[in-house]
Fold:
Amino acid sequence: MSEHLSALIVVLPLLAAPVCLLLRHTAMVRAWTSIVAWACMIMAWTLLERVQTGGAISYSMGGWDPPLGIEYRLDALNAYLLVIVTTIAAVVFPSGTILTGTALPEGKRHLYFAALLLCLAGLLGISSTGDLFNVFVFVEITSLSSYTLISLGKDRRALTAAFSYLVMGTIGGTFLLLGIGFLYQVTGTLNMQDLALRLPELLESRTVLAGFAFLMVGGSIKLAVFPLHQWLPNAYTQAPPAVSAFIAATATKVSYYLLARVIFTIFGAAFVFDALHLHWLMLPMALAAMFAGSFAAVFQTDLKRLLAYSSIAQIGYMVLGLSMASEAGLTGGIVHLFNHALMKGGLFLAVASVVMRTGSSSVNAISGLGRKMPITMAAMVIGGLSLIGVPGTAGFVSKWYLVVGALEHGWYSVAVLILLSSLIAVVYVWRLVEIAFFGEATHDVCEVPWNSWLPTWILIGGTLVFGLWTDVTVGGASSAARALLGGTP
Amino acid sequence: MSSKPPMRMREKVLLRVASRVFIPLILLFALYVQFHGDFGPGGGFQAGVIFAAGFVLFGLIFGLETLQQVVPWSIVERSVALGLLIFGGVGVACLLRGGRFLDYGVLDHHSSMHGQHLGILIIELGVGLTVAATMLAIFYAMAGRERT
Amino acid sequence: MWIEIVLFALLVITAVTIAGLNDLFAAAMLSGIFSLLCASLFTLMDAVDVAFTEAAVGAGISTVLMLGALSLTGNRENQQPLRLGPFVVVLLTGAVLIYGTLDMPAYGDPAAPIHQHVAPEYIAGATAEFGLPNIVTVVLGSYRGFDTLGETAVIFTAGVGVMALLLGRRKRRDGDEVETSGEGHGDAKS
Amino acid sequence: MEALGVWNYWVVVLLMMIGLYTVIARDHLVKKLIGLGVFQVSVIMFYVSMGKVTGGTAPIIPDEVPAEGILYSNPLPHVLMLTAIVVGVATLAVGLALVVRIREAYGTAEEDELQRMNGAQS
Structure:
């Protein structure tokens, strides 16, 4: 069975979702969802180990060899991504706060878990497929389940947030479809490897250029790259907090992967950066995102919205790494995928605990909670420190590589700007610390039960562990970066 | 959708009689599309849509309550799940018989062509079931709401 | 050739009318007609399966869903002027699209790359390995069966979404029609 | 003259632009979804146009013996577009469900009014 792992890791959650509708009973469905997430995580770690020792794995669905059939292809980059996505799922799904802030009555909760599993399956599908049209199909599975999950937030604004996301997401998805169509029309293939073989002689074609543009814009909408980010703050703010934790930690990572795959594997860095000079477009956008996101975060009165704006800034860091197109820069961007998933997932879970106890996610809700809920608040502080990039936390590691990458390019001003934008993060994180530890206690609450704070601490603890012990994260990221830069692995 | 003004009795009788003829025809056509998809245009998806249309028509004429007696909600919800499971189950069966996921050829060890036919037939059934049930579920969900 | 030009002209007229209409019932019906016109064009372009599906889905199910939703939400739309910002975005998108078409193979050209690579093998394989006449079914079911599994999952996801959003406000014996999604929910009457 | 060979793509582009404009510029949420539908169907039209081969027939192999030498239109775009149609109707269903709920919760389905109400709330 083990050679089928790369198919099973997607198929298992995909088929586990309908099982939720048959089980129906909330407690059973909840346990089932967690078991599936854990199984996926074990598969992902196995696959990563196998890819790192034995090279890329190709699996042809239906036994039809590519380009005839759909190929699932895992290399150092996807396997790394699978580990991120499944690990976050395995931590978030069993959390005691998973249902906090949802508007679902008892008889419908199994639908919520089905949507979570579908979202997971979609993300895993995008991450591991080697077929461009198959990407579109799984993008739509992810998107439709995310719209549903977001709309289940408690406030009625969750509905409008989900609708705006639906409109933006569908436009993005249709742009992807257009881009795929343009490339298909001049090459006759949908397989990524095959496209990479056939495109080099067609790079002068205006059809290929337009196709590239649509893929990039479609992917950027999904990733919420500044200035296409408007849907993100509302969606993350209104979604149930555990959903925000899951989506913020995984969905943007997968979209980022998609862009990297298009740029490096399908088109090749030489075309994108040497011929098109795309970095002169990406670099300002990344810098603008870093500053605009951080600035906006400073003025937010809602914890989830604050974290959402900080996400936009963090996406900026990742895109910055992409635009460097060097090993250090890409390593920084890719390792930041992992680190940001840990810290944002942990922070949103901490907010979920706050919502569980106080019923509110406003910044004022945590006033004085440093004494009432010390475990949760300590996690929030460490997560915040990691967002800033304090040495010893995971956030420092990614920023270190980004600064090194910038210096290698001779972009000294960019390196300075990275440090400056981190200073803004200090402002909004310090504000939280001040309110939590020096504010008046307005809510008379106690700490959340262990099954709620433990998931938070697993992720936040991860940011500490991977802040010091970087073998796995940086090692995996740099081999992924080399695989990308080396063209087809 | 359900809270339409009641029709006059005679119109309703006419509709009911006409629907007695048409609804079985629609369902029959759906079955034809389902199983003839290998030869002409059509397949599970189109058949599912038509199948659901037949039931929706029934529900519009005889009322949501009557339709729910014919096709109870629990069956609809389970069918939505079951269709996808049938499709995936075929894939898993291929794995168990030593092939790749969805490699129907291994379903029949004597003739891979026959195995392919069998596989396509079953997965189309799965598609049809999920599509028909989902469309019906959406109708139930919408028709059960009242205008605010 | 001429029939295609006429159909395309009708499509453009329909689309412009849809964009301009304030009566949403009419717009929904017109979008059904738009789908039907597209289905006719698909038939002319030899895509019988797509035409069948588009007719059943676009002109059938989608229109019914829209009318159903409109009966719950009302069909009046406020008048609004032409907006400059969206207009610029759309023009820009259109410009890139037109730019992309300039190097495309001509419509119907049998030498186009997509007819040379992969597709011939499907056509050959349908007879040799399947013995089935409908090539589309063969590709859909077997060669690209995993896409179809994904497609079924998309439908399933939509079902889950609609059930989660709309189900359960029916009047049941226990009267569990609360299902709030916020404080203001449900009591805002039109 | 070669550009004339792609004239139908230009019409399709025009349709896409009208659809996209309806999505972005109109305020009523159902109208947005209708526009989204026009946009998606136009993309489907674009794909199906690619698959057409002049002098070809529908990709269904006839029963009669001389099945060789027949020119078929490309079946792959058709297969892809069947999936795209499904995606379109799935999105529409979820979108409409959201509109119904929004209307129940706010009493309106016009975007500008919704924004005003959301702004007043926060």
